[in-house]
């Protein structure tokens, strides 16, 4: 049994392409339909009602493309709008990026102390804390918003003195709590992996939400017998949509996806119901 | 002769409140209708067509409120979409934030070398360079995008070591060119005035676009005999609209406006034509 339909993935912008990269790594035969709402990125600072509305519009656009699974690759929507989307989308599995990384961390922590970093919205929602406590109520969770990490990554300022100082500013207190696992709760953060690792030290294991989400998607599709036969390149047959073709799109997309996207399609916000 | 109608001011977000603050400083009797498109902020990284479309929608919303003048307090829209808005709005004066600061700098430079800092979109548009060359083609203009300044201001990280390092990273080369005037081509930058001044030194005069724009508005209204009689408080009768009530709105608004806004009204994007 197999299902050749594509996997739908959306994010507020291009950061979700880190999830797509991990999908191609662990399921190279799968096709992806990606949507990045680049006309309204970032969602992080918006109200909960706006985040829910935008997320549902993004989901509906992907559903119109006949997908077999929906991945909400946006931490903000996963944190505050996933239940809302699941209410509206009952015909296919819907997964977010919060739970997979939380499960992996809960399994790995020896000290039972887990750190979580993300945008202000993600941390403020306490979605990771709740997910971790649902898994094991005895876990101690320390979270910290790192709002400058996204612009640093988007500017390509990965390896500068002030990037390291910003990382220290955000992370030193977190390390002092004695955490042994740190969840990167934002799709941009994997690109800062080396700087974060150098700051927190090797005693702390970093958990990349993008990787664990792709792995969970693979597990679910396998369990449902819905994996696409692993021949041919899923990437070559994937499609990438944005709501606005921003000036340095190609460069940013390459940074997140790890390869060039040949053909990016633009849709109007009007077409997704705004 | 006088005109008691309000002045319409819009920005992609809340930064334009620095222009409103200057309006109340130099014209305390004037009422303002402000619109911040907080559901779609920032415009800086969007395509030119999106910037024009969003700007026109923002303008139309304010026009529906019977204003006597329209101030485009958004550097991005002023840079790439002002002509487009002027084509559609012929009944009242429309001014942007690019020309006023440029005029002031052109009058003040002794070395005839002017620096301009702004977002990537503003600098990329070369709007300040063109405006300055239209005034005096012999001026030498050196511009530099400082994309991290906005998130630093929005996070309130005004006085930190890495803010100073970021300022040095952006500004040292600019100072080496021998400029004696530096235009702050972004509504957020006045809040970094001290850090910028400490970096560039007192040899360089800083020109705040917000201040010069308010001054130009006052000059135009006076010339037209359309100033509101200076009694009563314009602020108390002003109205403030946003397209999304973001979580830390009050705090950010106070930082830009210098005082508390009691009543913020929210409008839906649908209502402005999106």
Q: Terminal Cα separation of chain A, in Å?
A: 38 Å
Q: Secondary-structure element order of chain A, as H and E? A: EHEHEHHEHEHHEHHEHEHEHE
Strand share of the residues of chain A? 15-25%
Spans where pLDDT lies below 50 across 5 or more residues of chain A: none
What's the quaternary structure here? homodimer
Q: Total strand count of chain A, please?
A: 10
The helix count of chain A comes to 12
State the helical fraction of chain A: 40-55%
Q: Report the average pLDDT across residues of chain A.
A: 93
CATH hierarchy class name of the largest domain in chain A: Alpha Beta
Q: What number of domains of chain A?
A: 2
The major β-sheet of chain A equals: 6 strands, parallel
Largest interface: A-B, 33 and 33 residues
Tell me what the structure shows.
Two copies of one chain form a homodimer. The first copy, chain A, has two domains: 7-96 and 211-272, Rossmann fold; 98-209, Rossmann fold (3-Layer(aba) Sandwich). In chain A, 43% of the residues lie in helices and 16% in strands. Chain A has helices spanning 17-26, 48-63, 75-80, 82-88, 98-108, 120-125, 127-135, 149-154, 161-176, 193-200, 209-223, 249-257, and strands at residues 7-11, 32-36, 69-72, 94-95, 113-118, 140-145, 181-184, 205-208, 239-242, 264-266. In chain A, the strands form two sheets. A six-stranded parallel beta sheet of chain A has the order 4-3-1-2-9-10, sandwiched between helices. The first copy, chain A, has a four-stranded parallel beta sheet with strand order 6-5-7-8, sandwiched between helices. In chain A, helix 1 crosses helix 11 (209-223), helix 2 (48-63) crosses helix 4 (82-88) and helix 5 packs across helix 7 (127-135). Chain A is globular and about 50 Å long. The mean pLDDT of chain A is 93. At the A-B interface, helix 6, helix 8 and helix 9 of A face helix 6, helix 8 and helix 9 of B.
